[in-house]
Amino acid sequence: MSGRNRPDGVGDVSSGGVGAYNHDMHGRRPVTEVPDVVGLAPDDACEIVRRAGLVPVPPDGVDELPMSGIVTTQRPVGAAGAVEGAEVVLWVHPGKESPVGAGVTGPLETGSPDPA
Question: From edge to edge, which strands make up the β-sheet containing 87-93?
């Protein structure tokens, strides 16, 4: 049964539809659509994620997001639904202005950043 047809009025969370809610111990929390920020500069990506009511964070093992370079991967992916206030993990490639040999903060491929 689609979330849109549920008797409790909960919207279709999988599409991040308007009126979608997630129930937790604190009550009903709205679900928002995760913006697609892959390909953007980290500072722009963080601002867009924050405006959507979400929290941009670096991947595990990285202290902070670099503010130069390019976002190569994000989780959850763009257009997914997420509860307002949820974290969006951003992997950033340092970009052309970084010195040769500078490391990346995450995978360059668009596949899953989690090892299988």
Answer: 55-57, 87-93, 70-75
